[in-house]
Amino acid sequence: xxxxxxELNRPRVEELLARYEKExxxxxxxxxxxxYRTITYAMHFLNNDPLLEPLVExxxxxxxxxxxxxxxxxYLEPSEALALQDNKKHGWGLEPExxxxxxxxHHKIMPYKGPHQHVIEACRKADWIDASQGMVKKGVxxxxxxxxxxxxxxxxxxxxxxxxxxxxxxxxxxGGIKVTRGIVKW
Length: 186
Hints:
Layout: H1 11-18, H2 21-24, H3 28-45, H4 53-62, H5 66-69, H6 76-89, H7 96-104, H8 117-131, H9 142-151, H10 157-169, H11 172-183
Helix pairs in contact: 1-4, 3-4, 3-8, 4-7, 6-7, 7-8, 10-11
């Protein structure tokens, strides 16, 4: 596989995330870098196709946002709704079903098959790489994952997820069950 292209500054991502910085609060740096890492992997799988970049960037800005905007462990639907609402409100012109699908299926365990498969699968694989902290590689080398992680440090993002599971679910165990039931798709 070819070397991953790492873009340190994505103006669209910065603009979209800035709208939610106050709500994300102390978790902002960790979430921002998670968004950048997942975009980096997804764009790699999509051969850095510039036509797909706005969709991928937008999908990843919104993909977990419901954790903070709705304080909800089953955050896929609130995240999708907010992304679709903003897409319409701001006239971005992104294909609604592709945007919704990239968010809805990003935790799918088995490969996604269906409309917009190419971009949804790239997003799904990208999130699995980052969510597993590189344990799941999806064909990306350990060295390339380390390069991406060095460019966009974790800043405690995975610990944040455990804290939110506890805070929003009552305990890490109960929260973990709620998250799993609410977001994991087969």
